[in-house]
């Protein structure tokens, strides 16, 4: 056990933590299994949203690519076709955390001559939250790593059971999140023999499919300095984002764009991407740049893979992919594309690196 001398501020700050008006926060490294990798996001759980000006100032103070704000709506128990709000249960008691398919035990023993009881319907808990994301300069409609970070906080703190589901109400619509174990065949790449997904649980984001429309090379004429030293294979537009496929993974890793050109171009962001190649262990790599919202380069961008996942799924002819975002911090994303319903399942790990309180 550490002595008080090893944490000289702990005793001095104890009184601050006890004050109800102060607000707790956590900083999560998303899409990373270890600290100081992936993409950091601050997560704040509030009883109700404060005004947008305050939330934007806090996001600017953190100066991370995303600050996430959560407000709980409800917790519901799903039994078969019946959905009951937790606070509507006749007993007023907490609904126990359970997972789909959990066996229901009868309190009394069943005699050998008794008729078999009907199988109880599966029980599951759904937690609904409102979720908003802010960069240091503006609020955004969709953020993948921020969603992963928010879900991680809820799961890890016990606010949500790890076998439960979370429904986030956002500007981009309803997003569902759950934890999943490694699945045989999921996110397996043929580009590296013998590689498998990590033998650990991951958080899975159920995100929308974003279609990429091919564009002519002339559409990037305003990025002459940024693209002058690379070989451009293909160009596309996806929801006001520019996707540029380069010839090699090394070109993506060494890419140095002109931020001034990106700010002046008519796209909201630039995603550069390339095949992972035969030895990297990844199906594709990417980097993402958002200087218009105060983030020159985003370390790991879950939402970008709503477009990059389907793009590479079509090119490679496979629905399960492993992706790497080749920023300085780096991050890994396991992706499953569902063409039938137009959804992209993005899986990743996360770790908490910081926790504290806001005094103002």
UniProtKB/TrEMBL annotation:
Location of region: Disordered: 83-122
Biased composition (Low complexity): 88-101
Pfam families named among the record's database cross-references: PhzC-PhzF (PF02567)
The protein's name in its UniProt record: Uncharacterized protein
